[in-house]
Amino acid sequence: MHQLQKDSNRQSDETTSVSELKELVSEFVSERNWEKFHTPRNLAVSVTLEAAELLEHFQWAPPGDEAIDSHRHQLISEELSDVMAYLLSLANVLKIDVASSMRAKMQKNRKKYPVEATLGTWKKPTE
Ligand SMILES: [Mg+2]
Q1: pTM value?
Q2: Which residues have their alpha-adjacent CB atom under 5 A from ion ligand 1?
Q3: Could you give the angle at which helices 18-31 and 98-112 cross, rounded to 10 degrees?
């Protein structure tokens, strides 16, 4: 059993590293001998399928109905975790360092969407 599963005091975002989550997913895959199924293509497809399952929780919601009760919150949390698990497995397979990739991409986004051109608006700045 993974260390994160054994130690319930270490299960929050504040105390868990991305590396530990990647290891958690890797162990789950390895224990089942599923590495052969976890190809980049299959994982990218799975990310999208799980993202669609996440979206289902917002399907048919009346406009303006943003209320999320505790049951719905739990279901959304589970789908978010499914998406994250496949993303982390994809990062494992492609040897992507999530933290450095994320920081680099956010820096790129900062240049693409400068505050002075995007503050309070959803419109993309003209190039
Ligand atoms: Mg799911």
Answers
A1: 0.87
A2: 50, 53, 82
A3: 130
